[in-house]
Amino acid sequence: MITEITVRVNYSETDQMGVVYHANYLVWFDRARTELMRDTGLTYKELEKQGVYLAVSDVHIRYLAPARYDDPVRIRCWVRELASRRVTFGYAVEHAERGTLLATGETALLSLTHQHTLTRLPDHVRALLQPAPDPVRL
Amino acid sequence: MITEITVRVNYSETDQMGVVYHANYLVWFDRARTELMRDTGLTYKELEKQGVYLAVSDVHIRYLAPARYDDPVRIRCWVRELASRRVTFGYAVEHAERGTLLATGETALLSLTHQHTLTRLPDHVRALLQPAPDPVRL
Amino acid sequence: MITEITVRVNYSETDQMGVVYHANYLVWFDRARTELMRDTGLTYKELEKQGVYLAVSDVHIRYLAPARYDDPVRIRCWVRELASRRVTFGYAVEHAERGTLLATGETALLSLTHQHTLTRLPDHVRALLQPAPDPVRL
Amino acid sequence: MITEITVRVNYSETDQMGVVYHANYLVWFDRARTELMRDTGLTYKELEKQGVYLAVSDVHIRYLAPARYDDPVRIRCWVRELASRRVTFGYAVEHAERGTLLATGETALLSLTHQHTLTRLPDHVRALLQPAPDPVRL
Question: Is the alpha carbon torsion for B112, B118, B119, B120 positive or negative?
Answer without folding.
Answer: positive
